[in-house]
Design goal:
mainly alpha, 97% helix, 60 residues, membrane, transmembrane
Length: 60
């Protein structure tokens, strides 16, 4: 159990890091394409929405 569980945790950690890196990379591309106006107006609204959804799932 010990080694198996540890291996699983390491694998999940690697996938998590890869996902974060991919997410940041795509985010940078999106920002460069959409520009500052889009990021300021719609980006902020989207962030607020995602935050609300996250809070909802954590507390409910």
């Amino acid at each position: 159990m010990g080694l198996g569980a540890k291996g699983d945790i390491q694998q999940v950690g690697q996938l998590y890091k890869a996902g974060i890196i991919k997410f940041i990379f795509l985010d940078m591309i999106n920002y460069s394409i959409k520009g500052i106006f889009f990021e300021k107006c719609i980006g902020n609204a989207l962030n607020i929405f995602l935050l609300a959804v996250t809070v909802f799932y954590v507390f409910v």
